[in-house]
Amino acid sequence: MVIYPKYKRPLDLSILLFAHITPPFPLIWALIWIVVPLCIWLEDRGPVFYTQTRIGKNKKLFKIYKFRTMIVDAEDAGPVWAGKSDPRITKVGKILRFTALDELPQIINILKGDMSFVGPRAERPELHHQFSKTIPDFDKRLSINPGLTGVAQISGAYDLEPENKLKYDLDYINNITLWRDVIIIIKSIVNTLTAKWDRPNKERNN
Q1: pLDDT at residue 76, as a whole number
Q2: Could you say which of 3, 96, 143, 176 has the lowest number of CB atoms within 10 Å?
Q3: Domain carrying residue 43
């Protein structure tokens, strides 16, 4: 049984508070929250945000928030993986994915307690149920809150098969420490600032 560390929630809230009251971060956030939505809307006059049901800790379902990176109604034919050079990805969306800024609205999920800054990537319920039938221990990913970032992300492992990505998740779950979380968050920030995610070439769901 995995014991969820008591420091996780206070750490998440402390980071959110620090990032929104310490200069010059409030100005940076304000610019991002104004410029990014405006650019998304100006490109095709479509919705700024994208929401999707994901499965979290103890199989709790929640709505995840992202900046929209695909054309409107991109998944009318059903959910598919966004591959390299996917024509459904907008011009602004390519930039947002490359810099990982499309994930920024998930701070709303962190504030609500559905997610943490660090943890396994939140999967769609249907995909989780599919993988858990064939991949041993896949359900263990749900023993902690999913994260905005994680070991797989900073390792450039977006395109790994689920069973291989699970190895990163289980390694994190079995070895959670405050110091490790801090290192992962710092590396994630560096990756975003230097655009080292190589995200347009990584297949992933929207």
Answers
A1: 65
A2: 3
A3: 8-195
